[in-house]
Amino acid sequence: MRLLEGKTVLVTGGSTGIGRAAAIGAAQHGANVAINYASSDDKAASCIAEIEALGQKGLAVKGDVALPETASDFVAQAVDAFGRVDVMVSNAGICPFHAFLDMPAETFERTQRVNMHGAYYMCQAAARQMVAQGDGGAIVAVSSISALVGGEYQTHYTPTKAGVHSLMQSAAIALGRHGIRCNSVLPGTILTEINKDDLADADKRRYMESRTPLGRLGQPEDLIGPIVFLASDMAAYVTGAALLVDGGMFVNLQ
Questions:
Q1: Distance (Å, rounded) from C-alpha 9 to C-alpha 85?
Q2: Where is the Ketoreductase domain (predicted)?
Q3: Comparing C-alpha atoms, which of 121, 134, 221, 214 is closest to residue 180?
Q4: Strand, helix or coil for residue 231
Q5: Residue 83: strand, helix, or coil
Q6: What domains appear along the chain, each with residue ranges and CATH number?
Q7: Is the pLDDT of residue 24 over 80?
Q8: What Å distances lie between residue 141 and 15, 29, 107, 145, 186, CA to CA?
Q9: Angstrom distance (rounded) from CA 177 to CA 69
């Protein structure tokens, strides 16, 4: 079953990690896909090649999500290429691990601008286009288990992920009258570019695996099903919700 047949899906941070998996997964389900990316030209090109190999149309648009004009440009280019926007997957994010007491202001502020401001601008731009189209749509934001728990070296990051989760709750109220659904996914520890250095420590990796009832850390592809579901008509009565995708880590407090 191709759950996104004929739809146009936009994905931020789409050249690597969860964003790349979501973009290719959307194409597997019949969508044309536009990705935003920050710097990895080769990886963005290879993502589009995989989308096109699946028989779908792809578009890569480079830009810094921290800037509001990047969002309006991304949506405009997607509409020029594909005619409309049906789904926005707001995924772009950074997490430069750092201690709290000597956190550089720029590290804190850059994390806020990319993760929180970027999500706001992208979701707002997509929603404006969906409202103009007049037939609804879906927004899926990639939050994190970090919206619910703290992290010693993530004091700049966890508030942004709580903010993204909260943004989807409020946007669900603001946009429900337009038939636009807004939900978030909360990944646990997923093996991506963000945490590859942190998890290079074999002891820490084994510890994180031991905390996960399913016995392994996540892969970006583990997010495809949850994201596609929330983007699809199968979730037609789901809005303002948050779906943990963490192998059970959050509930394993004992």
A1: 7
A2: 7-193
A3: 134
A4: helix
A5: coil
A6: 8-245 (3.40.50.720)
A7: yes
A8: 16, 19, 22, 13, 9
A9: 26
CB 214 within 8 A of CB 247: yes
User: H/E/C letters for each residue in 145-179?
Assistant: HHHCCCCCCCCCCHHHHHHHHHHHHHHHHHHHHHC
DSSP-derived 3-state class of residue 205: helix
What digits encode the pLDDT tens for the residues 229-239?
999 999 999 99
Q: What is the pLDDT of residues 96-146, one digit of tens each?
A: 999 999 999 999 999 999 999 999 999 999 999 999 999 999 999 999 999
Neighbours of 199 (CB within 10 A): 16
Q: Label the pairing between strands 8-11 and 137-142.
A: unpaired
C-alpha span between 40 and 67 (Å, rounded): 18
Catalytic residues, which ones? 144, 157, 161
Strand-pair category, 32-37 with 87-90 = unpaired
Confidence of residue 192 (pLDDT cuts 50, 70, 90): confident
3-state secondary structure of 134: coil
Quickly list DSSP for 109-124. HHHHIIIIIHHHHHHH
